Amino acid sequence: MDRDELTSVVVVDDHPAIVAGLEAWCAAADPPLRVLAAGPTPAVAWTPPGADADVVVFDLQLTEQVPAYPELRRLVDSGRQVIVYTMREDRDTILRCLDLGAFAYLSKTEGPRHLVHAIRAASEDLPYTPPSMARAISTDTRPDRPRPTAREIDVLVSWFACESKEMVARKLGLSVRTVSSYIDRVRIRYASAGRPASTKAALVARAIQDGLVSLDDL
Amino acid sequence: MTEPGRAVVAGNLMRALRLTTLTVAAALLLVFALPLLVADPGLYRSLGQQVVAFALLVAVAVVAGVAVVRDRPVGRVRWALVAAVFAASALATTGVAPADLMAEGEWSYGLIGWFLLLVLIDHGTTATLVALGVFTAGSFAQLVAVGQGHEVADLVVVTTAVLGCELPVLAIAMALRRIAGTAADAAVREERTRTEDAIAERLHADRRDRYAELASTTVPLLRALTDGTADLTDPLVRADYAVAASRLRRLFAEHDEVHDPLVHELRACLDLAERTGVVVYLGTCGDHPTPPLAARRALTEPALRAMATADTRARITVLGSPGGVTVSILTDGVGEQGEPLGDNDVGVTVTRLADGPDVWVEATWTATS
Lengths: 218, 369
Known about the structure:
The structure holds 2 protein chains of 2 kinds.
Chain A: E1 8-12, H1 16-28, E2 34-39, H2 43-46, E3 55-58, H3 69-77, E4 81-86, H4 91-100, E5 104-107, H5 111-123, H6 131-138, H7 150-162, H8 165-172, H9 176-193, H10 198-209
Parallel strand pairs in A: 1-2, 1-3, 3-4, 4-5
Helix pairs in contact in A: 4-6, 6-7, 7-8, 7-9, 8-9, 9-10
Chain B: H1 3-39, H2 47-69, H3 78-94, H4 109-120, H5 125-145, H6 152-226, H7 235-253, H8 261-275, E1 279-285, H9 293-309, E2 313-321, E3 324-331, E4 342-343, E5 348-355, E6 358-366
Parallel strand pairs in B: 1-2
Antiparallel strand pairs in B: 2-3, 3-6, 4-5, 5-6
Helix pairs in contact in B: 1-2, 1-4, 1-6, 2-3, 3-4, 4-5, 4-6, 5-6, 7-8, 7-9, 8-9
């Protein structure tokens, strides 16, 4: 992506108020984010101008009952950076979306504080772990899950509790940088354990390049 | 004397009664029956039957005697012993010529009743009475059946004498059993009354404590409200009212039967803040054990206080682990009053961290077991 260009976003959400709010946050961000298109179905992400967007913000709950996992999967398979942004915040849904290759998962209560940061991170292949995702990972009990260390779990739980890396750092006697690297390392391990996807490859490659993890860690 | 004491005394008397019965039965067998048997063996139609009958009664005396001496019930062999006694009686009375049935040489009649008492007295009055009745009626029937009807009057005399000794023993046993029974009942009643008293006392103390708490917190606030001395323009005063109102809500919530009391009571603490426009997020992370009530109050108290001064948002999270639970409160309320920090006597530790306008308070309870 050209650095000079603004990061572009396409929004798949059936609720106009959500779209309007998201557009307002993107416009207020510094530098601003550009919302290319918005619509109630995934078609908006497949057709111009939405097809060219860097990041897809995707509501999992497009119909009332069934989470739109197949649509999420198709978007991920075609190499899109997808941020799931939805009402649900239960662990199993979050972990399922991570397995499918979603870049990040945000519950709608986390939008104001985290969505813009998550979009920015997605456009740069940097990991971003909102608190609800941290909670899902810290309480993951599946037998084949990646195993974070006790210290990493402490950091994830505290991050879920206070949403501030500065406070987590002060509470646990770590530097903010260390807190961030703990959270990101766990995220990369989850990406690595997930289904093969180009987004995941980019995330892991960037993490190795930045020295966040080594190949041996994975 | 206490009721259990009476039960013990009744038990001791019953044992003495059984020992007496054993002594009488054994003495009759050896001092009364044996000499008769030995004195005139020629009298009997079948000496063999007499010997077997005697041996049966000796066996019954030994088996029942062991139980009596050990102060145990006769147990499962009881009905076999009763049958043995009746068998002995039948052998002894059919082993003499009908004409000798009322003669002195018929040794068994005076003994059988005592042996029935020995075997049955600890079992119950009714069974003993029935056995004695069956035996007596059988004896009369036998006498008539063998053609000695003219001697019925003699048998009445003998029977009266024998039963006159046996029935008082049975009466004493009945009285002792009743004393022991009422003593046990009274002990149960007394125990129940004591338990009820203890519960009532605990409930009363509980209510008094709760009222004392309200008297020192809520009542002054209500009084200030009614006499107009409360300055409701002062946010700190309003916060006091908010805290008191939330405490009452929590108090009500404590009596609900719910799956997770901690989160339920926490929600009651947050209710009021949500109504005043603070955006409240309540989330749980992981499973947690249920702390006791005092610990739950200490855990929810910081949240309750923080809610009173929260400005625009509050993030309440319940962080569970197998060994305890943490209630974490993040608010942007700068007017937070001094939070009681550190350990308290219910095992809850409170820590506090401020970052600009944000205050992060954590109350942690660790299960001691």
